[in-house]
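Re: export button greyed out
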Amino acid sequence: MSYILGVSALYHDAAAALIHDGRIVAAASEERFSRIKHDASFPVLATRYCLQKAGIPVEAIDHVVYYEKPLRKFERILVSQVTHFPRTLQSFRRATFNWLTDKLWVRANLSAALGVRPETLLFCDHHLSHAASAFYCANTPNAAILTVDGVGEWATTSLYRGGPGGIELLSELQFPHSIGLVYSAFTAYLGFAVNDGEYKVMGMAPYGEPRFEDAVRKVLRLRDDGSVDVDLRYVSYHYSATDSFTGALEDLLGPARFPGSPFDPQSAEGRRFADIAASIQKVTEDALVGLAKALHRQVSTDTLCLAGGVALNSVANRHILQRGPFQRLFVQPAAGDAGGAIGAALWAHREVLGQPLPADVGLRPDLGAAYPDAAIGELLGDLKVRHEVLDEDQLVEHAATDIAAGRVIGWVQGGFEWGPRALGHRSILANPADPAMKERVNQRIKFRELFRPFAPRSPWRPPAPTSTCPPAASSPSTGC
Amino acid sequence: MSTALAAPSLSLRAISYIVWRLVPGRGPTKMAEFSHTEAGSGLDMLAAVEETPRRDLRRRYFQHALDELKHARMFREQAIALSQGRGRAAAVLDDAEYIGSHGIRGKESLFSSLSEVEFLAFVWVHEKRGAEQFQVYSDLMDDDPAVRAMFAEIARDERFHISYSAAELDRYRTAGEGAAVDRAVRSVWWRRYKQGWLRFSHDFGAMMAGLWLSLLWLVLIGPFSLIARLTEKSATGFIPAGPAQPAAARARELG
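Workaround output, generated via the alternate export path:
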């Protein structure tokens, strides 16, 4: 009988996940409670929720596992400061101040914030947390595991073999050679916020053609063995605290897009930006397919487990399936840093404590908090919102009628989602047959760019034999 | 409680003039900061909706929250328009940690740290003060119709915030809790001064730390960089894993 709390925090997307005897009890991102997007602070509110769901006090937790190794990360930051002197003054001041006042004391700060004993704290490598979050949730005895993100301690991409004996690191790419950070640099170039707007680049890409592919390949160089390296003249993330690309990138591709400026794919400038988005998307897809092939050469299995922030690129994931050597693909739904919380906890249970995991660890899309109908009814009454209580049949009928009539529906059901995708638990539903609907929802309801896409929702049916998406790819992160 | 706005002080006008008119790029940056502040206020008001025992106030708090979140969006749009998405304003807008790092919303909500009457006093004092300040900024940006329209809409909303909080405080006063209302208002002012002092201390401390770290960077990082360059090895391509260590042994290590 052991309770293990996994924690990710301090960079972006803090989260907590509680497992009991290897089975997931609850998991939630801190932002869902604090309402601060990408909230990076210690997940106090998410931890409270996990404990409440399990019905245990904090003293009942046997181990708390932090999702990365803070000292190794600090080492990488210091080495970067030294290597790229004298361009590092600003980032040195900011990073060292942050580390000396906060991040370096993670053991003490974490135990104080969560109210846990310091001796219960364990630390897992960043990419290993990602790998465990994918492999141990995939309910498969053997798999190849690929983790790709911005950067963890040193690793930016890691190749693993997963089997009954645990997870074995095969090789890795190291900072500053990072697919995730280059994608983020292009995100900034295209006028979106780093660590937030990457999915907007993915959404902008279909409006363009990859006519800048050769130029982008000068920045992110793909090698024959599947590895990549970065021409550091075009990027500045390795020495700057505020910028991620240099003037050389603007010389290569033209002026960067002003954040917030209108995007019109019909204008010449709009087409250029869309083409650049399509180009970085294309090169990223090729890089990931190359990595999958390289991994398959070392691990002969038909199953690939994928995690890390880049694994949220659902379009690229589809390419890995269609063009890569694997037949089955599992993507951790919280593939970004939040997912590290689940991975760290499962890793500690399996590999540190040496305990077996159940065949199904209980990963579901609705691991977050649910709210009773009575509380919702009371709130709506107090806010004087007109409402009525319907049974399920009436509700479905009512919703379908409203959607068909062109109304937009807010749909809340059960616990909220684990991971960034809205999967029917906290979703906006609208009629896709109405050509004006996309603009209406984007502009008047979500207050976001007009080009941003929506996911189609249809009744589930087994895929046809000729389907390009096998059953194991039914994750929301495969773009199927 | 009074709902009339006080005439802005000369010092507020002078400082605002310097900040908004004389320092290039400072206006958009202030708007970017306001965007985060208003968003933080919106979160505080949403927490009040959830936590207040006075169910009759939930609707007012909710409307107030929606107003604050709308203001956050308006300030954000203006900051982008005025800065053309460049410079310090863009960096502030992109700073996802701003709300947390500026103490706007902690793990415990503002509402839970105050009584209902203290919370209403907080709303009344801060909204009045905010409205007075925004009036000054609006006057200074009078030559920009879009900014003027934005401040006019915000002023309308703030009149509602001031009037409902004042009316509620008057209700407490009528119910014989005048002393508690006075105490709450005094405590809010005291809290404002204390937080202002803490902000100044924090900023001053950060500036001094920045100076010392700059010195450290120069005398320590500089010489090491020369050595690093002589011995630099570029780690490109796949790096094979080293010998595996037992997980249990390395799990307690921070590095």
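The mean pLDDT of chain B is 88. The button fix ships in the next patch.
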